[in-house]
Amino acid sequence: MTFETERLIIRKWKDGDAPAMFECAKDPDVGPIAGWPPHRTVGDSQDILNIFLLKPECYAICLKPSDEPIGCIELKLSDSSDLAKGPNECELGYWLGRSYWGKGIMPEAAKELLRHAFEDCAMERVWCGHYEGNTKSRRVMEKCGFTYQWTTEYLEVPLMHEVRTGYVFKLERDEWIKQNDH
Q: pLDDT confidence of 51, banded at 50, 70, 90?
């Protein structure tokens, strides 16, 4: 499945995407704030890509007209989410290469994936969260209409071997419809 917005192509990950993923994911400012270590090699990226290829709603974000991934966006279904409970809920997750920050790319991608979640996948609720200090991620959530729900202190971040504070946001289908005049 592929989605298109004004500036983006959002498509399934391909086997040959590891070098492009590595170029973004090796940056120490990208992964750690989202809870995962920077990739050290293209092989690391290939290992992660092999996991992404198996996820039903995980997509590469590409800036038109290129087919080169600059980030990732996913609807984590209830079996792969700590927040989503049941088949009509999911969790939105995303990351973007640092050189693309501050250009409105992630809100554009997120709004399209939310459209997909509510219209195509019949979701009733989409969850999203961020760790303390990740203000850019929080701004994406706010731009997309999510509302703050709760804070969790002492949240384990296993891939980083750390404990952090996490913030949880939610967007209900009815709210999304009101915001989008559907």
A: confident
